[in-house]
Amino acid sequence: MSDERDGRTATSPAPSHVQLGLGREQLLTMYRQMVLARAIDRRMWVLNRQGKAPFVISGQGHEAAQVGAAHALEPGKDWLCPYYRDLAFCLALGMTPLDFLLSVYARAADPNSGGRQMPSHFGLKRARIITTSSVVATQVVHAAGLAYASKVRGLGEVAVACLGEGSTSEGDWHEALNFAGVHQLPMICIVQDNDYAISVPHRLQMSVESVASRAVGYGMPGLPVDGGDLLAMYSAMRQAVERARSGEGPTLIDAKVARFTSHSSDDDQRRYRPQEELEAMLRKDPIERFRIYLQRHSLLSDPEDESIQREATAQVDEAVQQAEAAPSPDVADLARHVFAEEG
Amino acid sequence: MAQGTLIEGIREAMAEEMERDDRVWVLGEDVGRKGGVFLATEGLHARFGGDRVLDTPLAESAIVGVAIGSALNGLLPVAEIQFADFIHPAFDQIVSEAARIRYRSNGEFGCPIVIRAPYGGGVHGGLYHSQSVEAFYSHVPGLKVVIPSTPEDAKGLLKAAIRDPDPVLLFEHKKCYRLIKGELPGSDHLTPIGPAAVRQEGDKITCVAWGLMVHYCLEAATTVAEEGISVEVIDLRTLSPLDKKTILRSVEKTARAMVVHEDNLTGGFGAEIAAIIAGEGFEFLDAPVVRVAGPDVPAMPFNKPQEDAFMPNPTRIAQAMRDLAAY
Questions:
Q1: Which residues have C-beta within 8 Å of that of residue A16, sequence separation ≥ 6?
Q2: Are A233 and A26 in contact (CB under 8 A)?
Q3: pLDDT tens digits for B229-261?
Q4: What is the pLDDT of residues B134-164, one digit of tens each?
Q5: Is A111 on the interface with B (CB under 8 A)?
Q6: Chain A contact for B73, CB < 8 A?
Q7: Which residues of chain A have pLDDT under 70?
Q8: Which of A81, A178, A340 sits opposite B102 (nearest CB)?
Q9: Of A318, A328, B242, B315, whose CB is crowded by the most CB atoms within 10 A?
Q10: How many CA atoms lie within 13 A of B85 on its CB side?
Q11: B100/A133 Cβ within 8 A
Q12: How many CB atoms sit inside 10 A of residue B252's CB?
């Protein structure tokens, strides 16, 4: 993300945690979840280089936007139609490191897909995270359907769909937002704009600086947010959730984030992104930024931080060990679950 | 038993299931106050209200995608695609999403949706109101594809589809809507998805068809019966999952088989049936399997003589029966 673009999309400074009513415990939980997501994500790349994880797709740089958004939701009640960079979002809604690592190893006990899908194609019924395909933007229409059911049945549930800015070029995105706008559904669409769809930059994807400016065409507010700022994201998301729950309708959030890694383990972003851009981006780590915030407000000491980091590493070590030891699905299970099974 | 048309069977099925289960809802273009362009949903809006009989924006992918999302949150949607010709924008939602939700989640999530679409030609519909699209979807594991040819089955299959835990596509031949009359069973009757029906028994030729072509085959069979050719007509009713047993049992008896469909020949569903008979019933056969189908042109013309030339008809089917009997 270029500095120039940051300047153009800058929003008003985020409210402080005090203004937002966030206590130290919740702030530290948020921090822990981001640290854990990053630790898992980095380990995936190590496993990839070791030949143990055939495919990796990352959420590094997106953590603050996702964890900030997740904390405005009610886990187990609200729905998430995620996309493949939503590891931190899923962890914050209740996915465990083992749940995820089992998918990296394609194990039978993988609750996302039983080893069928590539990793990061999230789905966890108990956390109301809807199963995801690789076809981008299809999930936004599902969120509209989930929200429609919530509205007509008076369930008070909010449906959230996440996707990248490139995916907003798909027809399904338009169809979903239009439908949500027509029926003023309790739906929130979070675009995680990291400026690149594999190699294609934002400016070749759309003619507007912020996809939020399209919201007016769907009859809903569009909020451009600095997605590197956890509290800004939490604040925007809380507004959106309040709107949704009180029957005021959907919200489109444009979270500007950074894609620290290449698109996936099969990509090398150095081939199409200038070196200076990559270096500048990596200096703006959202986790680092939140750590500094916490320390500035005397909410996190160095020893506490070290212990959080150690704890995350230990959790990842344990999950990797368990996932590696877990059995693969039987080959014969290939034919299962095409249709509902009897009994 | 009450008498009625095929479209009345469709309408009764929806009304009864909506009455029985308040999770059932209908969505599509013009399905509300207008009652659908063919009036399949007539009266439902007044009876069940706008939330449960929803006029959607003109966007097929959203119709199916919203249906999927609502099913994931406990509803039982019946989505109408106004014409099968316009289902293609929703292909991705049907094939990549609905068909795979159970499989890709290892059975954690299900997708109990029904998609209804009028299909078929012979109604001056031109290229974009005449298509048969069943082959595309019968190719896809995870989808059930049903095509009723009688009012009884239209009602019974749609009710079974609504109660089915998996995605079901129901294609309704628009020429059958008011042309085909018959018995309409009571509200307890379901036609199970899967089994084919033998509409006429015979011992010389097995003739497999679905939708309007079942009626054309029965007409042709009556014609050739006077010439001493006894034809067994099988109405598939469900294309996927396919009732191979009924087909093979019949071919074992007749030793001659033909398939009739409106869709163009190449890659049509008849090819699959011919391959199954050749692969699993080869030793029963005294003659090659015959396919009577639309020609391999992109679609059905509006011009009447050209439309007639495209559609298989009883005369053409009867001739194919004579040729096969004489082989």
A1: A231, A297
A2: no
A3: 999 999 999 999 999 999 999 999 999 999 999
A4: 999 999 999 999 999 999 999 999 999 999 9
A5: yes
A6: yes
A7: 1-12, 343
A8: A340
A9: B242
A10: 15
A11: yes
A12: 13
For position B320, what pLDDT does the model report? Answer: 98
Q: Where are the domains of chain A?
A: 3-326
Give whole-number Cα distances, B217 to A202, B206, B231, B262, B320, in Å: 58, 11, 9, 12, 11
Q: How large is the angle between the packed helices A230-245 and A24-49, nearest 10 degrees?
A: 110
| B228–chain A Cβ distance below 8 A for any pair | no
Q: How near does any CA of chain B get to the CA of A116, in Å?
A: 6
Reading the block at residue A21, the tokens are 């009513």
- Does B212 have pLDDT greater than 60? yes
The share of chain B scoring above pLDDT 90, in percent, equals 100
Structure tokens given for A83: 């996309």
Q: Please identify which of the residues A259, A273, A297, A336 carries the catalytic annotation.
A: A259
pLDDT tens by residue, B45-63: 999 999 999 999 999 999 9
For A81, which residue in chain B has the nearest alpha carbon? B69
Residues 24-63 of B with CB under 8 A from A: 25, 51-52, 56-57, 59, 61-62
DSSP state of A298: T
- The fold of the A3-326 domain, in CATH, is Rossmann fold (3.40.50)
CA distance A39 to A37: 5
Confidence band for B1, pLDDT divided at 50, 70 and 90: confident
Using the beta-carbon criterion (under 8 Å), do B103 and A125 form an inter-chain contact? no
Contact of B257 with B289, CB cutoff 8 Å: yes
Query: To probe the interface with B, which of A172, A328, A334 has the most B CB atoms within 10 Å?
Result: A172
Position A274 scores a pLDDT of 95
Contact A64, A34 (CB under 8 A): yes
Q: So which residues of B are the catalytic ones?
A: 129
The 3-class secondary structure across chain B, one letter per residue, is: CEEEEHHHHHHHHHHHHHHHCCCEEEEECCCCCCCCCCCCCCCHHHHHCCCCEEECCCCHHHHHHHHHHHHHCCCEEEEECCCHHHCHHHHHHHHHHHCCHHHHCCCCCCCCCEEEEEECCCCCCCCCCCCCCHHHHHCCCCCEEECCCCHHHHHHHHHHHHHCCCCEEEEEECCHHHHCEEEECCCCCCCCCCCCEEEECCCCEEEEECCHHHHHHHHHHHHHHCCCCCEEEEECCEEECCCHHHHHHHHHHHCCEEEEEEEECCCCHHHHHHHHHHHHCHHHCCCCCEEEEECCCCCCCCCHHHHHHHCCCHHHHHHHHHHHHHC
Distance spanning both ends of chain B, measured CA to CA: 43
Distance CA B269, CA A42 (A): 49
Unique residue bearing structure tokens 């949150």: B73
Q: What is residue A5's predicted lDDT score, i.e. its pLDDT?
A: 42
- Which positions in chain A touch B142 (Cβ < 8 Å)? 338-339
The kind and range of the H/E element at A159 are strand A159-164
Measuring CA to CA, which residue among B216, B133, B217, B160 is closest to residue B10? B160
Contact A179 B59 (CB under 8 A): yes
Q: What is the CA radius of gyration of chain A?
A: 19
Fill in the amino acid letter for A263.
H
* CB neighbours of residue A119 within 10 Å: 27
Rounded to a whole number, what is the distance in Å from the CA of B17 to chain A's nearest CA? 18
Contacts of A178 in chain B (CB under 8 A): 57, 59, 62
**CA torsion through residues A7, A9, A13, A16, sign:** negative
B3, amino acid identity: Q
Cα–Cα distance between A329 and A202 in angstroms, integer? 40
